[in-house]
Design brief:
This protein is an all-alpha fold and 359 residues long. Helix content is 87%, strand content 0%. Its main location: membrane.
Length: 359
């Protein structure tokens, strides 16, 4: 009884009453958010669906604006520079897709026989030396492979497939149209964002300016690294006599978009396409990939990227997985620039705080 009386007396203290009310309010807010989580999830998903095309279009415009500005500085009209850049982009993507799909299709068909034979041999070895019967597993794997290869046909023109392809193409066309609009009006948009940032806070404008400068440096470094990687791997596959050396070189360059994951996937593709060649060439390819990977990690990439925009591997993988979950395939592309923005923002805020403390 005495404790209750003390508690009621303490409630008369205004500060303690305010603290208690705030705690109760926070608890109520947390509970309401938890209870309506599905509603907020749907709202977030709807907002992302609306914002995503504009975000992707602006990112494309931002990435190619330096090239458009360069052509414009060479006395080329801006509309013509935009048309030229967009046309080259469409041609490059079309050629890459047209070349890549037949190669993957043919190699998959070529490997179907050796894969089935390898599974049968593995079944016999397991039975003979380990006395383990894996026939059910092997039969199931062969059945799945047969089903997959039978479905892997370009003659599949079902309405479901056609509607899916048209839907994807329609989405990409919308992104491209928005990118063209942003490119055409990029300078005015850039100036408007700067003025708006100054109205919010001078430090915010300074932070955006630093992000813009460092992100442009990152894009330039990325393009240089992409060319170097593509040239080196194209040379490796050319020397080994791989008929798809040019395509594999282009894919190796583009794989820089996905650090660690992209090069690994392209190297796996290169190894698969080399399986039909003499065994010693496969060994040489594995050695070349090992040497080039270490050369890239410890020499090429550190010299191209400034230490300011280097991202640790764990954060890179986390960023790629998170962005791909939120934005799909486009999220994989914007993951690294987003990580660079976060890092530059953090560094700039720390610099501003350090300057204020030293004053």
């Amino acid at each position: 009884m005495e404790d209750i009386r003390k508690f009621l007396n303490n409630l008369t203290n205004r500060k303690q009453m305010i603290v208690l009310v705030n705690v109760l309010a926070i608890c109520v807010i947390v509970y309401l958010i938890y209870a309506s989580f599905s509603l907020w999830e749907n709202i977030f998903s709807l907002c992302m669906t609306i914002i995503k095309p504009f975000l992707i279009g602006f990112i494309i415009a931002y990435a190619f604006s330096p090239l458009v500005n360069y052509l414009e500085n060479k006395k080329m009209p801006r509309w013509l520079a935009i048309t030229l850049v967009v046309s080259l982009l469409l041609v490059a993507v079309s050629l890459l897709v047209i070349s890549l799909i037949p190669m993957l299709y043919n190699k998959a068909l070529e490997l179907s026989g050796p894969l089935v034979g390898g599974l049968m041999e593995l079944q016999e070895l397991s039975k003979e030396y380990l006395n383990i019967d894996i026939s059910l597993i092997v039969d199931s794997a062969i059945e799945q492979m047969t089903l997959w290869f039978s479905n892997l046909s370009f003659m599949d023109t079902t309405f479901g497939l056609i509607s899916t392809i048209l839907g994807k193409i329609g989405g990409y066309i919308i992104n491209l149209i928005l990118a063209i609009y942003f490119l055409a009006d990029y300078r005015r948009i850039h100036h408007w964002i700067g003025k708006l940032a100054k109205r919010v806070h001078p430090n915010f404008a300074y932070c955006l300016k630093r992000i813009d400068q460092e992100l442009m440096s990152y894009i330039q470094a990325f393009l240089i690294l992409m060319v170097i990687q593509g040239a080196i791997y194209a040379g490796i596959y050319f020397v080994l006599g791989n008929p798809n050396w040019l395509l594999l070189g282009l894919l190796s360059g583009l794989s820089c978009i996905l650090p660690y994951i992209g090069p690994l996937a392209v190297n796996a593709l290169g190894i698969i396409t080399t399986l039909g060649m003499p065994f010693y060439k496969l060994i040489l390819l594995l050695v070349a990939i090992f040497v080039q990977s270490n050369l890239d990690s410890y020499f090429i990439t550190p010299r191209i990227y400034a230490s300011r925009i280097e991202i640790k591997p764990i954060w890179t993988i986390f960023g790629i997985m998170t962005a791909s979950t939120l934005f799909g395939p486009w999220g994989i592309i914007i993951a690294m620039p987003t990580l660079v923005i976060i890092k530059i923002t953090t560094q700039t805020i720390m610099e501003i705080r350090t300057q204020k403390r030293s004053m």
